[in-house]
Amino acid sequence: MRRLVLAFVLALGFSALLISPNVPARAAAPRQTLLAHGFGAPDDIAWGPHGSIYFVDFGNSALNVLLPNGQRQVLVSKLPGPEGIVVLPDGTLVLAEQIPNQLVRIDPVRRTTRVLVSIPNPTTQAGIDGIALDSHSNAIVVPDSASGRILRVALSSSVPPSARVTVVAHGLGRPVGALVEPSGNIIVVDEHLNGAFRIDRNGAAHQVGGFLSVPDDVVSDGHGGFYVTCLGDGTVRHIDSSGKPSLVATGFASPQGLLRRADGTLIVTDEQRNSILAIHP
User: Fold this and answer.
1) Residues paired with residue 87 on neighbouring β-strands, in sequence order
2) 261 CB neighbour count, 10 Å cutoff
3) Taking a C-beta distance cutoff of 8 angstroms, is the pair 242, 226 a contact?
4) What is the rounded CA–CA span in Å between residue 216 and residue 225?
5) Rounded to 5 degrees, what are φ and ψ at 194?
């Protein structure tokens, strides 16, 4: 989600970034590293091969890759409102295009794109934001942001087009990011309802972690909890497996995409500062 303007946060200098991920109050703040600048407005991110990072950027309307040596490459351009990214087991990508409200499948080697599914958006609200892979059902979980629904889009070619999209849940505000838990439940963050919600197999939504100020992206912590970027207060927060929230980092202008390495390092895009950062544990 890239339209929110946080003028009061922009007044802070880049050096004002305060990091405190799960350490005692008197411990030294973990190191933070600027990995690269984007192409103007980096947003959602996903792991690429050999430690590279795929990232979309509204600045060049493209899917890009950040290589481990710090070089940036444009893979596919002229994407109308590129947002969420999912990497499939075969190495191809599914990407959400917000303006036409559709999912496209991208071959990053051949650099080809084809439409996977288009989702009607009869509202005036901005379309799809983040998406997630559901390996349990070989599908993509789509927070249909404009409608307040959670959809599941089947990837199997054996599923007929008329049955490819099913509704998992409805009645949310503006869901914008998701992850699928090992149990099969879905964690969704909703920027209008200012919170994270666990969607069970019956489609019921239960809030987790209390108030979150305009949450945007969510990633698993590997231990039953998750991290969330929050646009409303320029923070990254952690919700543990019991639902207890804590502050991880603050002072961002517009924290968007979020990834976690196995060693606990977080990768965050700060759209308004055109930056891709590593926050080390």
Assistant:
1) 93
2) 14
3) no
4) 16
5) 55, 55
Which of these, 210, 215, 154, 165, lies nearest to 188 by C-alpha position?
Answer: 215
Residue 121's contacts (CB-CB under 8 Å, 6 or more residues apart) are 101, 127, 146, 147
Map the chain to HEC letters.
Answer: CCCCCCHHHHCCCHHHCEECCCCCCCCCCCCEEEEEECCCCEEEEEECHHHCEEEEECCCCEEEEECCCCCEEEEECCCCCEEEEEECCCCCEEEEECCCCEEEEEECCCCEEEEEEECCCCCCCCCCCCCEEECCCCEEEEEECCCCEEEEEECCCCCCHHHCEEEEECCCCCEEEEEECCCCCEEEEECCCCEEEEECCCCCEEEECCCCCCEEEEEECCCCCEEEEECCCCEEEEECCCCCEEEEEECCCCEEEEEECCCCCEEEEEHHHCEEEEECC
Which pLDDT tens digit goes with each residue over 6-27? 333 333 333 333 333 443 333 4
Could you tell me which of 120, 40, 45 has the C-alpha nearest to residue 84?
45
Radius of gyration of the chain from its Cα atoms, rounded to whole angstroms: 18
Sheet (strand 235-239) strand order: 18-19, 245-250, 235-239, 226-230, 215-220
State pLDDT tens for residues 164-188.
999 999 999 999 999 999 999 999 9
pLDDT of amino acid 1: 53
Whether the CB-CB separation of 221 and 248 falls below 8 Å is answered with no
Residue with tokens 């019991």: 242
Give per-residue pLDDT as tens, 207-244: 999 999 999 999 999 999 999 999 999 999 999 999 99
CA angle 16, 22, 26 (to 5 degrees): 65
Angle at 259 between CA 230 and CA 39, to 5 degrees: 80
- Tokens linked to 136: 């349990």
Task: Give me the chain's average pLDDT, please.
Answer: 90
pTM of the model: 0.89
